[in-house]
UniProtKB/TrEMBL annotation, chain A:
Location of the Aldehyde oxidase/xanthine dehydrogenase a/b hammerhead domain: 18-130
Entry-linked Gene3D superfamilies: Aldehyde oxidase/xanthine dehydrogenase, a/b hammerhead (3.90.1170.50), Aldehyde oxidase/xanthine dehydrogenase, molybdopterin binding domain (3.30.365.10)
Coiled coil: none
Protein's name according to its UniProt entry: Acylaldehyde oxidase
Species the sequence originates in: Rhodopila globiformis (Rhodopseudomonas globiformis)
GO MF assignments: iron ion binding; oxidoreductase activity
UniProtKB/TrEMBL annotation, chain B:
Species: Rhodopila globiformis (Rhodopseudomonas globiformis)
Listed Pfam families: Fer2, Fer2_2
Keywords of this entry: 2Fe-2S, Iron, Iron-sulfur, Metal-binding, Oxidoreductase
CDD domains: fer2
Domain 2Fe-2S ferredoxin-type: 12-88
Protein name as catalogued: (2Fe-2S)-binding protein
UniProt-recorded Gene Ontology molecular function terms: 2 iron, 2 sulfur cluster binding; metal ion binding; oxidoreductase activity, acting on the aldehyde or oxo group of donors
Automatic annotation (TrEMBL), chain C:
Name under which the protein is recorded: FAD-binding molybdopterin dehydrogenase
Keyword annotations of the record: FAD, Flavoprotein
Organism this protein belongs to: Rhodopila globiformis
GO molecular function, one term: FAD binding
Pfam families: CO_deh_flav_C (PF03450), FAD_binding_5 (PF00941)
């Protein structure tokens, strides 16, 4: 029986439940020194001076670095697909302040307490310049994103004549919505431990990163050494959700500090420091206009997004990626605008772009269903696309209809009274809403190595990572399955930049990319062992032992021209039930059903976990999460985990996950489409539409907190 | 074990009783229990997620009660029994809740997991492990950003039924 | 945190003396350590109250006596507390997390500082609580959680304790120990409102320590209820809350105690609401009519305007709960 498709427990489970799994801040080193950053308290301007007298008197201080004495960094590269367009922060290199909570100095001391204490005593003087923070003011200067800025975002291509069609359409809706900035807020704090070899030529870094090899390249460039001399290690990532895609300024700072003091240095950002030290899902405003025939056939879509950005980089994302393919429609217009303000650059957060865009699109679709007096499910079913009209390609497979009908059936959608405000549970208003989910099935080049030793041990290696989806387990499954071994007979290595090349661990493409590379390596290994023994069957461990030497094989995956032949997309459908307390305006999610067509499911146990996690993330996005930035100063007003609210166990509804069978022979590799992002994408709009159904009030601003409902 | 910080405040320091072993640390009163465990004793199972008692990743059992070790001064934990995730498995055998976490896939990234398990062990001791509503309410001090809560509930119920 | 001296007094009197000499008190430490780690407070001397505070919870004919050293969790699950003053159990069980409740003391709970994000960010220049005279960044800022009652141009911060709201409704008395001896203080005298000095939050004298809390046992206390409104279902301070006790006889309200949290600069006793209830039939119409008085004098400052909208609805619901509705 194939191991692929089996609900196997995590191979890293025992390490994780005993505290033996080591994350970036968990690696000990002899003579470790501790670092703490000093952050800016203005949003824009120049640093005019530092008063270090008090800080230097704190016992145990080894060094204080500012732009005046820090080592000079080389140019930090832009590595696609992660880095935005522009000039990234080069920390401690000049006197410019670009945003609040920017790292402007670092203190290194014997102990963590001393480092933080001294950092708190660094006095900074500034020449502030006027900053624009308030989004309403920022929007007045919004401009279209340039071609360069959105070059990698194919969703931005429209077709037909949306404006003219909207003007003559039988039924139209015009839906404006806003989503606040969200922070990924993985529970693991961002941390870097850096150590230079005694000759100062080699750097070892334990870093919280989703891409060890990109981290090595960035550090190599910054410190003017070849990337091979930078060893980045991160076997376990304590969640990331996009927050560890880029190499953030503190990683360079830790390496600079280690270089200056000649000792290993550990730098852990506090939760408050994290808000300015990394990125966030951008604040967005979207306007979706739909035009349809009386029978619900879509004729035109105009979907415009305006997204916040910093002034030093432009980050755009796939907000408009789903709109031109999700529904059959001839006329589509997709303007993307950017609004620059004096904040730190936004970046990708789980379901980047699509989570934002599908929210607005599905809100508008719900409004269209109301305008048409039509079941929202029937409206979706009427507009299911036959092919990808944007790329003008067939889908490798599409199970949207099956997802919709399967989820609707499991949810009991046919018992819905479509009249808003009509359903009750005692005092509570009850609402049922639904939305479609979608994420591209991305995959890129990857490599792997497989080895069997003369002792009969199998080692498989690739430089990928595991931030939680289960790479450790699913890749072991692929290797064990290919080699016809038991799971415990395969020893996997990941999370190390010295291992064979692997892509960024993000964008739901890990198993689709490294899975087939590992399979290829294992097939080649088996071929090499059989070839040496002159057999074409048998246990490779036994044969290797008998022959008495090691065998090794390199494997690779290259998607080749797949992208030119097929549009590869995962689809899903999400149904949600909410209660609304009419006295308190509290909204609670009671249950969610999701059905997904995502190709091959390698491990249904872990896949379900991904999906229930995406649902919880969607609940946060819909009801709780917003990064409050003071509109005058740019300070993060809720820069913690007490007032930046993520869902708790008490917020957990009944969660029902199902995968519709989807054997996709066109999608390549293992037949997988990826799952991490699509699990989140449709959740918030399903909840938002359920809130409308419960109350008859259309909340157009995420999160839907009691204050917004009370004032709606 | 005797760990020295070269520049910290005065002896006599602090004696901690962790997982049945006594450790003397030459640390001052400003060191939290969490930082004493992680940075002085190399017991990195307790995690730092917020350092402000807002996430639960640092949960340990102190005097039989679950607490945020980031909100305890090590000096005030002097000579009081402390159990961390490293001390939970007896003789190499996993605690029933540790095993149930694996069975029910009650984690993804694993970072909040030591805190969840320590909190869950205490919750079961408190007699709150059998009722789902009680579990949901009284496990809400442990944030899980991967959203594994539904599986954590299942794991706690199973372990509670067995203990 | 910075280095400091931890002083360990042998009794309350010594502790009070050390406090009067400028030492800062620490009890459970759950709020103090947050403030110290964020550099909002930087004491160089801490006086450890933990060994000298009374942790006992006692029920007698007069009601409950809760030692200020009792942990929130111990009080929350105490059967006599649930019997005599269920609003206290409810308020505590809806507060913080079990881990925090196992550390935090009752005295410390009453003296925890506001959750105002401008107060808790030492990188913000304008905060009259942190730096008297520097201004108030919350006015005109992100003030969704801020107060609509008792505010001034100096400060609009709320007091975050749920427990204190229940105590105000139940007319609890604080037993204080100070350098000059002991005294009793009604709970509603503990907190100050501020026109000019928001940094002065309580009427405690230098060195004075909350030693115990006395809660009278009455028919009112036994059916009082606590209702808390928040974004998520647990582990969050209140956006709004209400503690309500009603004495109903023959379908008529004979006595009422009403307090609200999350709306005022201190736990807010709603005397006009109470007056409007007396003698009225115990029904939803009376509750709604009385609850409308809750917003008298309320001033919105932007994002907290919804509190004025929600106050009557939330209070009417709490009255219905205390009146025996499901």
């Amino acid at each position: 029986m194939s191991l692929i498709g089996q609900p196997l427990p995590r191979v890293d489970g025992p390490d994780k439940v005993t505290g033996r799994a080591h994350y970036a801040a968990d690696f000990p080193a002899d003579r470790m020194a501790h670092a703490a950053v000093v952050q800016s308290t203005i949003a824009r301007g120049r640093i005019t001076g530092f008063d270090l007298a008090e800080a230097e008197q704190v016992p145990g201080v080894l060094a204080i670095l500012t732009h005046r004495n820090a080592p000079r960094l080389g140019k930090i590269p832009e590595i696609p697909p992660v880095d935005p367009v522009g000039t990234p922060e080069h920390p401690l290199q000049d006197d410019l302040v670009l945003h609040q909570n920017q790292h402007i100095a670092v203190v290194v001391a014997e102990t963590l307490e001393q480092a933080r204490w001294a950092a708190s005593r660094v006095r900074v003087s500034y020449a502030p310049e006027p900053a624009v923070i308030d989004m309403q003011a920022t929007l007045r200067h919004a401009r279209p994103a340039s071609k360069d800025e959105i070059s990698a975002k194919p969703g931005n291509v429209g077709r037909g004549d949306a404006d003219a069609t909207l003007a003559s359409a039988a039924v139209t809706v015009d839906s404006l919505s806003v989503m606040e900035r969200e922070n990924q807020n993985p529970i693991e704090l961002h941390a870097t431990t850096a150590q230079w070899d005694s000759d100062g030529e080699r750097l070892t870094v334990w870093d919280k990163t989703q891409w060890v090899q990109s981290c090595a390249k960035h550090l190599g460039a910054a410190f003017n050494i070849p990337p091979e001399r930078v060893h980045v290690i991160d076997p376990f990532i304590g969640g990331a959700f996009g927050s560890s895609l880029r190499v953030w300024p503190h990683t360079y700072i830790a390496a600079m500090a280690a270089k200056v003091v000649g000792r290993p240095v550990k730098l852990v950002l506090s939760r408050r420091e994290y808000y300015g030290g990394t990125g966030a899902r951008p604040w967005t405003q979207q306007r979706v206009r739909l035009g349809a025939d009386r029978d619900g056939s879509l004729q035109a879509i105009r979907h415009e997004v305006t997204a916040e950005n910093s002034r030093y980089e432009i980050y755009t994302e796939n907000v408009l990626k789903a709109t031109p393919i999700l529904y059959r429609c001839r006329n589509v217009d997709l303007p993307y605008r950017v609004a620059l303000r004096d904040v730190n650059s936004p970046n990708a957060m789980r379901g980047p772009g699509l989570a934002t865009g599908v929210y607005a699109l599905e809100l508008a679709m719900d409004e269209l269903a109301v305008a048409l007096k039509m079941d929202p499910l029937a409206l979706r079913l009427r507009n299911i696309p036959e092919r990808d009209q944007m790329k003008d390609l067939p889908f490798s497979s599409i199970s949207l209809e099956q997802c919709l009908t399967e989820a609707a059936s499991r949810f009991g959608w046919d018992r819905r009274n479509h009249q808003p405000g009509s359903m009750r549970d005692g005092r509570l208003q009850l609402g049922w809403g639904m939305a479609v989910s979608n994420y591209p099935a991305e995959k890129v080049k990857a490599t792997a190595r497989a080895r069997v030793t003369a002792k009969g041990e199998v080692h498989v290696a690739t430089a990928s990572s595991d931030m939680g989806p289960g790479t450790w387990t699913s890749v072991t499954q692929v290797a064990a399955d290919t080699l016809d071994l038991a799971m415990e007979q395969v020893k996997l290595s990941i999370g190390d930049s010295a291992l064979p090349m692997a892509p960024v661990h993000g964008g739901s493409m890990t198993i689709s990319s490294i899975g087939p590379a590992v399979r290829d390596a294992c097939e080649k290994l088996r071929g090499a062992v059989y070839g040496a023994a002159g057999v074409n069957t048998g246990d490779i461990l036994e044969i290797a032992r008998r022959i008495g030497r090691d065998f090794e094989a390199e494997g690779a995956f290259d998607p080749g021209d797949l992208e030119e032949r097929f549009s590869m997309e995962g689809f899903g459908a999400v149904f949600a039930e909410v209660t609304v307390d009419p006295d308190t305006s509290e909204i609670r999610v009671r249950r969610i059903t999701g059905a997904y067509g995502i190709g091959k499911v390698v491990n249904p146990l872990l896949a379900r976990s991904q999906c229930i996690g995406g649902m919880m993330g969607g609940i946060g996005m819909a009801l709780l999460e917003q990064t409050e930035i003071d509109r005058r100063s740019g300070r993060f007003v809720n820069g913690n985990l007490a007032e930046y609210l993520v869902p708790t166990m008490a917020d957990t509804p009944a969660l029902d996950v199902t995968f519709v069978p989807e054997e996709d022979r066109n999608v390549g590799g293992l037949g997988t489409k990826g799952l991490g992002e699509i699990a989140l994408v449709g959740v918030a709009p399903a909840i938002a539409n359920a809130v409308f159904h419960a109350t008859g009030k259309r909340l157009r601003h995420l999160p839907m907190t009691p204050d917004r409902l009370a004032m709606a | 074990m005797n760990t020295q910080d070269s520049h910290t405040a005065p002896a006599p320091g602090v004696t901690l009783l962790v997982n049945g072993t006594r450790h003397h640390l030459a640390i001052g009163p400003e060191v939290t229990l969490l930082d004493a465990l992680r940075e002085r004793l190399n017991l990195t199972g307790a995690k730092k997620g917020c350092d402000l008692g807002q996430c639960g990743a640092c949960t340990v059992i102190l005097d039989g009660k679950r607490v945020n070790s980031c909100l305890v001064l090590a000096a005030r934990a002097q000579d009081r029994p402390i159990t961390t995730i490293e001390g939970l498995a007896a003789d190499g055998r996993l605690h029933p809740l540790q095993q149930a976490f694996i069975t029910h896939d009650a984690f993804q990234c694993g970072y909040c997991t030591p805190g969840q398990i320590m909190s869950g062990v205490a919750l079961i001791e408190e007699g709150r492990g059998h009722d789902e509503a009680e579990i949901r309410k009284h496990m809400s001090g442990n944030l899980c950003r991967c959203g594994a809560y539904a599986n954590i509930i299942a794991a706690i119920r199973e372990a509670a039924a067995r203990t | 945190m910075q280095s400091f001296t931890l002083q360990r007094p042998s009794g309350l009197a010594e502790a009070a003396r050390l406090g009067a000499e400028g030492g800062e008190f620490i009890a459970g430490g759950t709020d103090m350590l947050q403030l110290m780690k964020e550099w909002v407070r930087t004491p160089d001397r801490l006086v450890d109250l933990d060994p000298v505070l009374d942790p006992r919870i006692e029920a007698g004919p007069q009601g409950l006596r809760i030692g200020a050293g009792a942990r929130m969790e111990a009080v929350a699950v105490h059967p006599e507390v649930a019997r005599i003053a269920p609003a206290i159990s409810e308020a505590l069980l809806e507060s913080a997390s079990p881990q925090v409740r196992n550390l935090a003391t009752m005295g410390g709970n009453l003296l925890q500082r506001t959750r105002c994000g401008y107060f808790r960010d030492a990188g913000v220049a304008a905060c009259n609580k942190r730096r008297p005279g520097s201004g108030c960044a919350a006015i005109g800022g992100e003030n969704r959680i801020h107060a609509v009652l008792g505010t001034s141009g100096q400060c609009i911060a709320t007091h975050p304790s749920d427990f204190a709201v229940a105590l105000v409704a139940l007319e609890a008395t604080l037993h204080l120990a100070g350098p000059d001896g002991e005294r009793d203080m009604p709970i509603h005298h503990l907190y100050r409102t501020w026109d000019t000095h928001p940094e002065q939050e309580t009427n405690l004298r230098p060195g004075e320590i909350i030693a115990a809390i006395q809660v009278p046992a009455t028919a009112l206390s036994r059916n009082a209820r606590y209702l808390k409104v928040r974004d998520r279902a647990a582990f969050e301070w209140a956006l709004l809350s209400a503690a309500v006790g009603l004495e109903i006889d023959g379908g008529t309200v004979r006595a009422a105690r009403v307090a609200m949290g999350g709306v005022g600069t201190k736990p807010w006793r709603m005397r006009a609401v109470e007056a409007a209830l007396i003698g009225k039939p115990a029904n939803d119409d009376s509750y709604a009519a009385a609850a409308a008085h809750a917003t008298e004098g309320a001033v919105a400052r932007g994002e907290n305007a919804y509190k004025i909208t929600l106050m009557p609805r939330v209070l009417a619901r709490a009255l219905a709960l205390a009146g025996g509705a499901a």
